[in-house]
Amino acid sequence: MSESNDYVIRVLDSPLQVDAQAWDALLFAQSQPTPFMRHAFLSALHTTGCATTATGWTPKFFLLERQGVLQAGCVIYIKSHSQGEFVFDWGWARAYHQHGLSYHPKAVCAVPFIPVPGSRLLAHSLADRVVLVNSLLDWCAANQLTGLHALFASDDDVQALTQAGLLLRHTIQFHWSNQQPGYTSFENFLASLSHDKRKKIRQERRKVADAGVTFRVLEGTAITPADWDFFYHCYERTYLEHGNPPYFNRAFYRHMASDMPEDWVLFIADRKGRPIAASLLAINASSIRAGGQNGSKFSTDQDDAAVAATSNSTERVAYGRYWGALERVDCLHFEACYYQPLQWCIEHGYQRFEGGAQGEHKLARALLPVTTTSAHWLAHPQFFAAVDNFLTQEREGIGEYVDELVRHSPFKADAAR
Questions:
Q1: CB burial class (10 A; 0-12, 13-18, 19+) of residue 260?
Q2: pTM of the model
Q3: Looking at the chain, which terminus has fewer C-beta neighbours within 10 angstroms, N or C?
Q4: pLDDT tens by residue, 362-407
Q5: Distance, CA of 200 to CA of 191 (rounded, Å)
């Protein structure tokens, strides 16, 4: 605990020590809240052992309070490795090693295993956000950590991180946008694409349908324990087929089903009367409902129209997360992970679908390049200067890459999308 002027900063070792209602109220007041920063999500990571010291993720919750009222907060993780971050710094770690130095332990301000841009530094003002960043830097220096890395930060975060002197790094993701007035149907969406891209998508969907595959869409509490079990079976198998254990265990998804069901949509593919594949979509339903309730408790008995009428200006966003299949069907991945979610987003008035990290193949499915931002501070002054020079050159390359991707837009030349 430290005191400065009129506020107190507390550093806690577990989300279970943090008041859930105060944390979520602060989160939903941000410009870019995501379900992955909810107290329930962070607590599930901790209590199920997915993100703990044993897995190389030691949490520290920083809370800035005035007269006992939470004004700002964030979570950082002390990392003994660089896995599960999706902003790759392995080259920096190798450079440290080549000079006889250790790159770890480091501090990461991020959601473990989730490469989704969003608010990381939760605060009611820029001034409090800057105080929070400077407190993180002082704490990292005092604890001899090699650096502080804020990953997939929001624009508000970036403003504070820049003011505190951190270096900015850009990466590319692919997002789909349902611009106003919005597509009226999936066919209406296809009509905005160039002829060859529209034809390709129709061919891919036809292959799945001709193989006898149909889909069921389950939302929120309609996802039964058996459905979650089937999804996890598919998810785990896909990870193991690629030679890695999954980041999340079955217990984690039990928490998702019980603690924040409104933020999940499950697509199950059936063939010959039995399920063969599943894909999981996260949505920001809790943020929308919280906006409509002025940050108070959620209302689970409102229909979509009522929520939309009473909510704040929070965009409706869907996040493509995980999938797996027990049988191989040509183009099934595209149907389960892109076309079914996009169709669902159009039908439910969602403005954006984020397809996750990497993947130029997403461009042909109308997910356009978007620049994401992380910020970095390194305690070693010479390496800080070297990384600063590297990032200046990298940003130029990222800009050229985006320009090249835009030139290959899948949309018609006259489509304002």
A1: buried
A2: 0.92
A3: N
A4: 999 999 999 999 999 999 999 999 999 999 999 999 999 999 999 9
A5: 13
